[in-house]
Amino acid sequence: MKINVDPSLGLSDEEVRQGSKSYEDWHWGLGSQKVVDWKDPDMPPTLIECGRLIRMHVRAPGGGTHPRRKRDTMIELSRSTSANSHVAFDPEHPDERLYLLLSPSARPTIKERFWDHNNLPATNLNQMAAHAGGRHGKRRDYPSVAVKPVGVLTAVVYYTHKKGDGPSYYIHQMGELSHNFPILCVDKKGRLWLAGGNYTCPSPGITD
CA triplet 53, 48, 164: central angle to 5 degrees? Predict the structure, then answer.
């Protein structure tokens, strides 16, 4: 599944071909032609779906203890929400940036829980990424969006089909190699963002 997040931009035949190739490579030979109109001008024009977003593991921000030694809080999506939520990456970004695309129907609940009842100050997404560090933290190419931290993202769970594996749940531990973790953030619209981190998204799957 390719995700065209701004249908007003349109997709050329070549962009559709490249998107199909990126999807097929990432899913180890399993192709798809479906395009989802996401309609969000703050997102890149084309994203490639890794899978349906199922669950996020986060640690409270702050403190000096390594995130792996703290206790996770799990944010698990309902089946209906997950059916319309995606983990996706930007194939045109030099570091293949990840996006957590939350179903619009779930955003009011996420906004209330993590923005309205969050006493931490709102910060520009680029500043939050710089604070998180990693290859994504070094770049100042995030959209100008005010966000609040939900916590350090230690793992993400998604559901997808990959050739040879069949329908499967995948859990990716963030910061596996570098121990550099992105920060899961929320904005006032209830959208989720990943700030910073050292991961990339080559065809074998999310790395680090």
Answer: 75
